[in-house]
Each structure stands twice: as C-alpha cells, then as structure tokens.
Amino acid sequence: xxxxxxxxxxxxxxxxxxxxxxxxxxxxxxxxxxxxxxxxxxxxxxxxxxxxxxxxxxxxxxxxxxxxxxxxxxxxxxxxxxxxxxxxxxxxxxxxxxxxxxxxxxxxxxxxxxxxxxxxxxxxxxxxxxxxxxxxxxxxxxxxxxxxxxxxxxxxxxxxxxxxxxxxxxxxxx
Length: 174
Known about the structure:
By secondary structure, the protein is α/β, with parallel strands linked by helices. 42% of the residues lie in helices and 11% in strands. The protein is built from seven helices and five strands. It has helices at 2-6, 24-29, 56-73, 93-101, 121-127, 136-148, 159-173; strands spanning 11-14, 34-38, 81-84, 114-116, 153-155. Strands 1-2-3 form a three-stranded parallel β-sheet, with helices on one face. A two-stranded parallel ribbon has the order 4-5. Strand 2 (34-38), helix 3 and strand 3 form a beta-alpha-beta unit. The radius of gyration is 16 Å and the shape is globular. 34% of the residues are buried.
C-alpha cells in the first residue's frame, strides 16, 4: 500500500477496510490518498462457507460507520473516504440481493458509495449462468439498480458496455 502510494496511487481500495495490516490506517492517514473501505465477513479463503447475519443492512452499516470513524480519528478527512458494502464478500445470494435492494440506507453515512457487482456469483445464481464472462447483462442491471439507490461509483470489468448503459440510463433519468 505504501509503495503504491509512493509510486503515485491516489486511491486505495482495501477489502479489509484497513484492518488487514496494523500499519495500513497510518499509511493512509500519513498520505493524501483516498480510501475505499469495504465490508467483508470472514477471511477470503472461508468467507463463503456459511455467512450468517441477523440484519445484514444494519450490521454492514454499523461496521462501515465504525471504520469511517476510525479513519477520521486517525486524521483521514471524510472527503477522502468512500464505502463499499462488499457485495459477494462473505454474503449469500439472498444477502447480496437485500443489500442491493436497501442500498440507499448506506447513503446516510455521507460518504461516496462504491458498488462492485460486475460478474459476481450472485448474478450467476440468479440467472443460472456459470460463466462469469457471460454475466454482462446481469452486471449492468445490478449496477444501474445500485446507481438508482445511491451508488456513486461502480467497479466494473466491462468498461465500454457499462459506460454505454450509463449514458442511456442518465439520458432517460434527465
């Protein structure tokens, strides 16, 4: 992370919300880089084994709130912090769909909302498409639904196709 910032990176996208390395919060605080704090339940190797939540929207919201507060306490300006509910990271299809449906709940935190739905497994589960490369339509649908509910940044694989979908969607919404 420090080497990337030193090499010119201006945004750090951290799937551990700066908890994966005890030095990461200090690295961000000492830099001018922005950070994307993502929610993930568990560890990457086992996060999909049996994810359980009592109320996924409030639990993810509380976690992201605590991580934003930790960053601010460390001296990171709120304007440099974006949040990501972590679609697919320690969540079932049902969890992911509920997070997308209730995505607007996260806008109350006041940080830009990042959404990474491109080619995710839940799209394959819903559409019965096992090949991630064939999930473009589902990715576009989920991304536009996210934008309609408050997402301000989409993380995508298919940039050109997403840009076209956004242009058409935005023209309709004007």
